[in-house]
Specification:
This is Phage gp6-like head-tail connector protein. With 97 residues, this protein is an alpha+beta fold. The protein has one domain: Immunoglobulin-like (Sandwich), CATH 2.60.40. It is built from 2 helices and 4 strands; from the N terminus they run βααβββ. It has a 4-stranded mixed β-sheet. Strand 2 and strand 3 form a beta hairpin. The N and C termini lie far apart (33 Å).
Length: 97
Amino acid sequence: MNNVILLNRSNLEDQLDSQGMLEVAEQLIERMKEHVQYIAKGVYEQFVVDVKMVVDNVLKNITAHFIVHEDEDAQYQEESDGLKYILFQDVTTTDKG
């Protein structure tokens, strides 16, 4: 989905990397882009994206929290462009087995 922009992608990647799970970043971002079109309708609305993956033979549930951000330059853009700006907030992981 090209009309969704993650403003602080490096923060997401840094948090995942610190937990040894950088490889899940693309999957989380793609899911976020899919979900934001259907889940988050308003500015400052929060939503979560869950991904399951195996790390060191342990099933992990990874939950990333995002928020729809206001476009500070909205007055200069056409309303029809449909861009959504997203901020990553944090990521949590739990072992599932």
